[in-house]
Amino acid sequence: EKSEPADVAMDVPIMQVAFSKENLLLLRKLKTAIDELSEPYKNIFLFLFFSILEECSFTSKDGQFLRLERNKKTPDPVEALSKKVALVEEDVRRIKLLYPDIFIAREIIPDVYLADARDLSGIKFKKSPTIIITSPPYANRYDYTRTYSLELCFHFVKNFEELKAIRAGILRSHIESKVEKNEKPPHPAVKEVIEALSRKNLNNPKIPDMIIAYFVDMRKVIEEWYKVLAPGARVAMVVDNVRFEGEMIPVDLILSEMAEEIGFEVKEVVVARYKGNSSQQMKKYGKVPVRESIVIWEK
Q: What does the alpha-carbon distance between residue 42 and residue 30 come to, in Å, rounded to a whole number?
């Protein structure tokens, strides 16, 4: 109660409508109090704080964006955070009961690096990695700077301009992706789909740019992996095939062929599940199952 409200990116439009006045003030005060904690408590409480933002707001994560629900009942932020603390305490208690002699050796604590997967040259790995397990963004128009805008605006994004800069700088899998003049489809199948879509009436004319940008970026990612991985290392990556205006894009096979060109050996493409299409696509082009796959490559 004695804390001053923390500065948050209030010029971001969603922040102006996402909270009641009471909850917004309390959340800003909580953020200030958390920022003043010593480590490791600051990081622990930041993690718990981010986990209550959605439930204390009028929003809910809905695929490509945050959905606004004006009639949503929102809890008191202090009570919500207290419940999270209780859950953590219960988890710790159970771990101690199940593993009374648990000991985590320093040498198995993971190293965490902040970097762009399209350029790993700045990371000084202690030794060459032997495996990559990842699920990068899918080429499905989802913009994670929108989905997680509350968390970003309460953490390190100071204003709307910074949020837009992050949106422009992340891996280009969303509809606001921009393609440079010299960037072309990096695979024949991608070029074929782009040409097919150019003859169709798209609900968003930026879709072809997003598809080109996605595969250009993913090729850069795969090239970086090949540079840093140890010989014999493996990649296990979850990818989702996509469909736009009836045109199917086999992302798993295209990325695997690109990986082979770069030097990887494709060991397996595991179908994790089949998904449906959007209701608009199914009505217009029929229901065609779309693969979500795990690709396995070896250097």
A: 11
Q: Which residues pair with 271 in a beta bridge?
A: 293
The amino acid sitting at 143 is D
Are 12 and 63 spatial neighbours (Cβ–Cβ below 8 Å)? Answer: no
* β-strands 265-275, 290-298 pairing: antiparallel
Contacts of 32 (CB under 8 A, 6+ apart): 3, 4, 5, 6
Structure tokens at 216: 């250009």
- Separation of alpha carbons 277 and 290, rounded Å: 7
CA dihedral 178, 180, 184, 187 (to 10 degrees): -50
Closest CA to 184 of 208, 202, 205: 208
Determine the longest span between alpha carbons in the chain, in angstroms.
65
Q: Are 42 and 33 contacting, i.e. CB atoms less than 8 angstroms apart?
A: no
In order along its 299 residues, the chain shows pLDDT tens digits of 899 999 999 999 999 999 999 999 999 999 999 999 999 999 999 999 999 999 999 999 887 778 999 899 999 999 999 999 999 999 999 999 999 988 888 888 888 999 999 999 999 999 999 999 999 999 888 888 999 999 999 999 999 999 999 999 999 999 888 899 899 999 999 999 999 999 988 888 899 999 999 999 999 999 999 999 999 999 999 999 998 888 899 999 999 999 999 999 999 999 999 887 666 666 666 677 889 999 999 99
CB-side neighbour CA atoms (13 Å) of 190: 25
How far is the C-alpha of 295 from the C-alpha of 177, rounded, in Å? 25
Among candidates 246, 230, 253, 241, which has minimal Cα distance to 290?
Answer: 241
d(CA 176, CA 190): 19
